[in-house]
Design goal:
Elements (H helix, E strand, L loop, with lengths): L1 E3 L12 H8 L8 E5 L3 H8 L14 E5 L5 H15 L6 H11 L1 H22 L2 E5 L6 H13 L6 H13 L5 H4 L16 H15 L8 H12 L11 H6 L2 H4 L3 H5 L2 H4 L27 H4 L7 H16 L1
Parallel strand pairs: 1-4, 2-3, 2-4
Helix pairs in contact: 3-4, 5-6, 5-9, 6-7, 6-9, 9-10
């Protein structure tokens, strides 16, 4: 499985024979390859007018291109803002809550990402095919798909150390712009241009799989929540900057402590281990049916008092009794 940014074919259909040779070199004997574009065909065609585009079938005869649309970062940020607003709604009206949750499209985004990841994993597991995943820049939806596909396929990625290595390899080293994407979250009054919950959506997708396969992961939900917290606000330097070049210029390795070195201490690591874990060497296939996806309460409802509604119901009952 490979990942990249979009090819710069443009309106003139430019070619890069070196790219073609490199990608074709990954094909196994007698096997074909799949190019999974995380944009819709319409969006990919619009990108051609700006110098981008997608692979021409004539130049990649052994590859089949599939478009699996995943929304770009600005749409995802609007979705998060709507979701947070719904979770903080104090009206206690069931219809209003369900309507707001649906309008946020958050669970729809999760379904789209998981569907694309499952497709990539199926191409590799069931056909032994090579897979190339890309979107526009190759630093957002591309990373979501390749990371989740590895979790589905590789049991090592379901261990704590394996998952840490996955985050480093597929997110930090691949140049996901954490500083831009995780600037202020959805609770800020000002709106940042490049902000988006791309990494949070990835963690949410992992939680969905963890919930469906509770014994196949060495880490618990608490581990995922911890990563979410440190991506947005941390005393460690792991998620600072937008890429490895920036982190190198800032000399973060010399000036800050790594989150991993702290988490991997035995006394700290025990907090994040899953007591139900049993090593599972099999491929796991998560369900993407609407009934199988749930709101991640541990993140989005974490500050809601579970007893608030009971307290208010009790107060209403006492008032009625006193009135009568």
């Amino acid at each position: 499985m490979m990942r990249s940014s979009q090819p710069l074919t443009g309106t003139n259909g430019r070619r890069c024979k070196e790219d073609e040779k490199l990608i074709n070199a990954t094909l196994r004997a007698g096997k074909r390859g799949y190019i999974i574009d995380t944009r819709s065909l319409n969006v990919a065609q619009q990108a051609r007018a700006k110098g981008g585009g997608f692979e021409q079938e004539a130049h990649y005869p052994q590859w089949r291109r599939i478009h699996k649309s995943i929304e770009r970062f600005n749409i995802l940020q609007e979705s998060l803002i709507k979701l947070v607003e719904a979770c903080n709604d104090q009206s206690h009206n069931m219809d209003r809550w369900l309507s707001k949750l649906e309008a946020s499209n958050w669970l729809t985004h999760i379904k789209e990402i998981l569907t694309a990841a499952c497709l990539a994993a199926q191409c590799i597991d069931r056909e032994g095919a090579s897979v190339l995943v890309h979107g526009t820049e190759g630093t957002d939806s591309t990373l979501q798909v390749t990371s989740l596909a590895q979790i589905i396929l590789d049991p090592k990625c379901r261990t704590i150390r394996g998952f840490e290595s996955l985050v480093v390899r597929e997110w930090l080293q691949a140049g996901h712009p954490f500083q831009q994407r995780c600037a202020q979250s959805a609770y800020s009054n000002s709106k940042q241009k490049w902000e988006a919950p791309v990494f949070l959506l990835f963690l949410d997708c992992v939680w969905q799989i963890l919930r469906q396969f509770p014994c196949s992961f060495e880490f618990s939900e608490h581990f995922l929540i911890m990563l979410f917290e440190h991506a947005y606000a941390s005393q460690f330097g792991t998620f600072l900057g937008n890429n490895e070049n920036e982190r190198s210029k800032l000399k973060l390795q010399q000036k800050t402590m790594s989150l991993w070195s702290w988490v991997n201490r035995p006394q700290e690591l025990s907090k994040y281990k899953n007591p139900l874990f049993e090593a599972n060497s099999l491929v796991i296939w998560p369900s993407v049916a609407p009934q199988s996806l749930q709101l991640w309460e541990g993140v989005f409802l974490r500050w809601n008092r579970s007893s608030r509604f009971l307290d208010e119901a009790y107060e209403e009952m006492v008032t009625l009794i006193e009135y009568n």
